[in-house]
């Protein structure tokens, strides 16, 4: 039944599977049932070089179009996404393995960022600054960079691309997108919709380019001086490689890398809210979000009570086909992820961890692939090495604290710095958590979990998370170059700092 439904989805999204060839095509298999979805054509190095040239040529045309007109094109893309939300959401769910509701939510993120970008297209503002010289006007303006390279990860196969692309487009840039080789079909579907809008409006197709393949394409992009900005989402290891390559050529990079996110649960918390936030953060997308909750840091006075409630709630989690909306959790992305999950649990045991909710593989008629696992909860010492690493799996670590300062220190004492949260009804605790002595993460929430962000705020983190910002607020500035301009409308040439120069 799943294959029939998905075949209809692919047809409506105009996805055509190419004939398989080990040298020229890339196959996508669903972690839901292990079935082949489709083949896409892999991008050769020659094709890549051609697409970069075309993107640069298209930039010459695209940047001349007034920003509000570019915003109108993005508005139409958002309309196209709305029309295909259910099909795209189902495809995201089937190809990546996240729940159907999360698949719909990911498409909604694309729609939302298009709406945000449309409004932004009538702003892109610069400052006017007071000049120290008489009859001079000084201001700043912003110009597009050129070609923006986007490298996205499997866990959000389309949303993170849209965060970058929609903003980059209204800023006047063209885009080259390399999606994860694990989720190429959703990328093809989005590209089809975008190209249809471009064709309708007589916009050069190369304003949006799609390349398909493995990490070698990302390496080409990172080293390509024709691409002034690389926005890369993925592991810290990958991000360091990209950052070094881009920095060598003095390019720009936006890096959204690993997360090791914690929720501090104080004795003044609303237990119901904290429980729901903790569970969704830990098991949403089967723990494969960069914002997934990895650690719960719980006050000693409520530790046992909250642990028991957590164990009881975990017994109600439904695991299975993510296209069935009754299920909370689908599969991991592939068997390599499963092995990482299993080895992490074994490492927890070696480091003195106590399993509170047992993990393990799931098999049987309700689990038609080998990628289904049980969400796991482990009591771990805060100093254990494994808790300082990011594991993309539904493994949640429990830790105990006595003072808020101790809890914040535990939270911050990891290499990553993406998302953080505190659950408390105490104003002083909340403000301390948000103060300069509090969370060191790029995202700090109060009475909200670590997972799930609105596009209106700038998204990103610190330390080994990379320091980049995408999506809302003034993140658009990363996709443009700043130009300071001074105009002299006097009949003299006064110099700055009062310097005298006469002939």
Overall residue-averaged pLDDT value: 96
Structural class, by secondary structure, is alpha/beta
Read across the widest sheet, the strand sequence of neighbours is: 12-13-14-11-10-16-17
Low-pLDDT stretches are none
Proportion of residues in helical segments:
25-40%
N- to C-terminal separation? 87 Å
Strand content: 15-25%
Q: What's the shape?
A: globular
* Most strands sheet: 7 strands, mixed
Short summary of the structure?
Strand 1 and strand 2 (36-41) form a beta hairpin. The strands form six sheets. This protein has a seven-stranded mixed sheet, sandwiched between helices. It contains 14 helices and 21 strands.
Could you explain how this protein is built, in words?
Keywords: NAD, Oxidoreductase. Homotetramer. It is a single chain. The protein has helices at residues 2-12, 45-62, 67-83, 85-96, 100-120, 159-170, 184-200, 215-222, 236-248, 271-283, 303-314, 335-350, 404-412, 427-434, and strands spanning 25-29, 36-41, 128-129, 136-144, 147-151, 174-178, 208-210, 229-233, 252-256, 261-265, 293-299, 354-357, 376-379, 395-401, 416-417, 419-423, 443-446, 458-459, 462-463, 470-471, 480-488. The chain has 503 residues and is α/β, with parallel strands linked by helices. The strands form six sheets. A seven-stranded mixed β-sheet has the order 12-13-14-11-10-16-17, sandwiched between helices. The protein has a five-stranded parallel β-sheet with strand order 7-6-5-8-9, sandwiched between helices. A three-stranded antiparallel β-sheet has the order 3-4-21, with no helix packed on it. Helix 3 (67-83) runs antiparallel to helix 5 (100-120), helix 4 packs across helix 5 and helix 5 (100-120) runs parallel beside helix 6 (159-170). It is globular and about 85 Å long.
């Amino acid at each position: 039944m799943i294959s029939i439904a998905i075949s209809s989805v692919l047809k409506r999204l105009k996805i055509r599977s190419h004939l398989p060839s080990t040298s020229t095509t890339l196959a996508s298999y669903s972690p839901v049932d292990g079935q082949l979805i489709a083949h896409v054509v892999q991008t050769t190095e020659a094709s890549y070089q051609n697409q970069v040239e075309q993107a640069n040529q298209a930039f010459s045309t695209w940047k001349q179009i007034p920003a509000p007109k570019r915003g109108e094109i993005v508005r139409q893309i958002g309309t196209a996404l709305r029309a295909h939300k259910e099909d795209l959401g189902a495809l995201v769910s089937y190809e990546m393995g996240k729940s159907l509701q999360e698949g719909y939510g990911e498409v909604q993120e694309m729609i939302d960022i298009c709406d945000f970008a449309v409004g932004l297209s009538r702003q892109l503002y610069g400052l006017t600054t007071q000049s120290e010289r008489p009859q001079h006007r000084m201001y700043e303006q912003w110009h597009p960079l050129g070609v923006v390279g986007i490298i996205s990860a499997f866990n959000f196969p389309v949303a993170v691309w849209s965060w970058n692309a929609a903003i980059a487009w209204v800023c006047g840039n063209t885009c080259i997108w390399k999606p994860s080789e694990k989720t190429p079909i959703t990328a093809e579907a989005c590209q089809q919709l975008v190209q249809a809008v471009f064709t309708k409006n007589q916009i050069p197709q190369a304003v949006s380019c799609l390349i398909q393949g493995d990490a070698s394409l990302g390496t080409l992009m990172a080293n390509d001086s024709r691409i002034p900005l690389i926005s890369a989402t993925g592991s810290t290891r990958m991000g360091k490689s990209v950052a070094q390559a881009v920095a060598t050529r003095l390019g720009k990079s936006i890096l959204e890398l690993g997360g090791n996110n914690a929720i501090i649960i104080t004795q003044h918390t609303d237990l119901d809210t904290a429980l729901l936030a903790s569970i969704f953060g830990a098991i949403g997308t089967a723990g494969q979000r960069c914002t997934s909750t990895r650690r719960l840091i719980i006050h000693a006075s409520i530790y046992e009570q909250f642990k028991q409630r957590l164990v009881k709630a975990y017994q109600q989690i439904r695991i299975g086909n993510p296209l069935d909306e009754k299920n909370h959790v689908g599969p991991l992305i592939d068997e390599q992820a499963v092995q990482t999950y299993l080895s992490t649990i074994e490492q927890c045991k070696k480091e003195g961890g106590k399993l509170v909710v047992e993990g393990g593989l799931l098999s049987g008629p309700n689990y038609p692939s080998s990628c289904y696992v049980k969400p796991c909860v482990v009591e771990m010492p805060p100093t254990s090495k494994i808790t300082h690493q990011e594991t993309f799996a539904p493994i949640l670590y429990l830790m105990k604290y006595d003072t808020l300062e101790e809890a914040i220190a535990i939270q911050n004492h990891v290499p990553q710095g993406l998302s953080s949260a505190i659950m408390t009804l105490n104003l002083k605790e909340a403000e301390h958590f948000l103060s300069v002595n509090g969370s060191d993460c790029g995202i700090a929430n109060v009475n909200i979990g670590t997972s799930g962000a609105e596009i209106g705020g700038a998204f990103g983190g610190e330390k080994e998370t990379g320091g980049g910002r995408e999506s809302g607020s003034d993140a658009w500035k990363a996709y443009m170059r700043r130009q300071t301009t001074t105009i002299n409308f006097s009949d003299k040439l006064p110099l700055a700092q009062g310097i005298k120069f006469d002939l």
